[in-house]
Structures are given as C-alpha cells and as structure tokens.
Amino acid sequence: MKGSKNPNLGAQEDHSDSEYINDDSPSPVTGARGQPEPTHPTFGTYRPPTLGEYEGGTVRAPMAPASTTTGQPAHPLQTLGNRGTGSGPREPRTRAAVPPSDPHERVPRDHRFDQGVGQIGDGVGSGRNWLIHRDRDREPVLRAPLRIVRTKRDPIHQQNGSTYPGADVVIPAGTTLSQVCEKYPRHVWGEMLRIFISERWDARRIWELLPPNARNNAVNRPWNYIQAAMGREIDLMTQEETGVRRVPPKKKSPAPTAEEGRKALDQELNEVDDNDLARESIASDDNHPANDPYNRMDVKWANRLDVPQLIEMTRQYRELGVNAELARILVTYNAGGERDAERAWRRRHNAWARRFLGDFELRFGEPLESREPIEMIRQLFMRLNARMLGETHDNYNDRVNWNVWSHYAGVVQGLQDAAEADYRDLIRAELERDAAMTAEVRSGMVEEEDVNEDE
Known about the structure:
It contains 10 helices and 5 strands, in the order αβββββααααααααα. It is mainly alpha-helical and 455 residues long. Strands 1-3-4 form a 3-stranded mixed β-sheet, with no helix packed on it. The two termini are 62 Å apart.
C-alpha cells in the first residue's frame, strides 16, 4: 500500500507532486514508526487529488482492501504457550567430538615401563592412547609416569590436611584410572580429565570412585560438577585445535509472571495521564465496540472512496492497530487485555497529535486551539490550500472535507503499521535468539549447566 499513487490514500510516502504544497515547504510529517524526531516543522502528509480527479476522474490504481473481519495483527498471536520462554524443554547440548583411544596395546606381565615422565599435550587427541593392557590385569594402566601440569588447586576443601598426594606429584606408570580416582583425587582435574574423556569414562563413574572426603555433595546430582569440568576441558581442547575460543550465548530471560507483567504494564501505561491524551476522531465506545461486525460499512475498494467510506476505512485500521497493541502487550508482559491495548493505542495516537501541534505552532507562530484531530488537520489544510479561482464555496468545503479525512485515514494507517512493526520486531528478536541458540547447540558451543563447585 505504501508508495501508491492512489489519490484515495491519506498519508503516503511519495508527495513530491502535490500541487497544494509550496515547493519550499518542509518534508511530510512522519507516522509513528520510531523515526527520528523532526528538526523542523513538517506538513502536507496527504497528497490531494487534482481537481479533475476529484470531480469524477478515474482512480489510477485500486486501493488494497483492509480487513473486513475482526482486526488481527500481521502475524499469529504468540503467547506463552507457544513461544520460547526458557521454561520449556531445552535443546540437547553437544560439543565437539573427542576421538577415543585406540584399542589398548597388549603387553606381557613383566613389561618394562618407560622411565621418562610424560605430560599431556594439546588438542582434542591429547588424551588418547595413554594406557596399555598388561596380561592378567583387569584394567589398563598408564604406560609411563605422568605429570599433571595444569590441575585444579585443592579442589575439595575437605582435603586440607589430608594424606592425598599433592597435584604436583608424578603419577607412577602402571597406575589404573580407578587408582587415580582413589589414591590421587587431587589429580582428577584439568588435563587429567582428557584421558578420562578419551577412555570414555563418565562423570558419575569418576565421582563414585573418589574417596568420600574428596567428593562435592552440594548438589542433587553431585557428579554434575565433574561433568561441567569435563565439558570445559573439551572446550579448551577444541580451542587449542582450532584457535577459536567459544563465547557462550547469553541465557534467555524467562517470561515474567502474570503479577510481574501486570506491574510492568501498568508502569508503561501510566507514564501519560489519560486526561492529557488528545481526542480521537474515530474511537470505539460501549455502544459501538471496536470489533462489532454489525457496525461495519461496505467499503467498495475498487472505486473512489467517499467520506463515509474513508471514515469506515479509518475505523478498520484502528481496530487492526489495537489488536497489534494487544498482541505486543501479551507477548511482552504475559498480562493485559483489550482495555490495556486501547490505552496503548491512545498513547501512540497522542504522540502523533503532539508532534502535529508542535509542528503547526513552529510553522505559523501560534498554537492550535483544537485538540480534535479532524479539526486540527482541517485548519492546517485550509491554511495551505485556499479556494481556487472559480471554485464554489460548497465545492471547496467538499474538497477540504475529503482531503482531511483522507489524510487522517493515512495517519491512522501509519500508526497501525507502526504498532504491527513493533510487534513483528518483538517476535523477530525472539526468533533470532532461538535460532542463534539452536546454531550454538548444533555446533557444540553451548555452555554447560551451571553447577556449584568449590574453587
């Protein structure tokens, strides 16, 4: 609908050929689309038709019809039942794959171990093939003495004063991973986890083999803190391999409760006193509710619209705008209803009226006394468009009346577009966050569950 040359349109984006506006007049008044505040007076938002068109000329382009049913927002209303809130099922977490160790090398019982002390290297394969299998042993053992250069500093506070070897002690060759857990619990961190990961040990198996006074039992699933440490070690191995450090995405904020949303909504709507709001030339009341289908007038969109049809079109655009406000409120606050949507719409309409009044006073040096939109626009139009030579008084009044309502229809259409744009932006932002989270999950770059662990 935007940019059409249809003379029936009110506020258009192309006004360059209007014969009723001086060439040096400022740019048109913008609708409520979040555009920057004008720095100079702006007028002439309508593009009146030529006299020939008005007196019976054909319409160059048919106007796209507005909805003739109950107004709905541009997108299906998404409420807490079908939008991501952080409280529903979570995407499964995955990380970069760590290759397992090869089948363990079989050696005789009297195998002579390497005497050189080894250290774990870098990359996703750094924990592989550190174990060999001696005859008659139930578990594979370390093939060489191992020094853990990077480990956690005294991870469990109960170990203070214990007899467990310090983390700087070399683990001798021939030690099984079970023995590392039982006798070297201070080593079961940092680089050592790479061997556990490559040998396909899980966190619970490690935790169950730790001495009771070397366990962290502060959480319901106490091995979770080991699982989190293993996840961080995988991230570090991946960073060493690729040179790219993972940046965990921000956690999605849960939706507000109904009570919290109601409080925040009231705060938004109470920013402007209802008594300070400008009047509307088209509004619903108790006798004529906004969505009453029996109040509708048949608008023949393919023909030139007369004033009653412009009024009906304006009312329908208003209904769509109020519905868009309701959708935005429900998604944002998890609270609210039609009365709140009406107030939000009136605040949006009031913002336009205040800009209009300010521009008028800046241009003409005197304020407008009226606060009724149709009368405001009428005074502006009559100041900018005098009676033409040979034009009768009745024809002039008809021209003024048609253009005023055409302009106001465009204003309300612009406000409705802005309300729907705000709602679409809100939904788009949520969808983009969800898509980003899904992409992070699929690439194995999602942060592990936060767990309590002692430093």
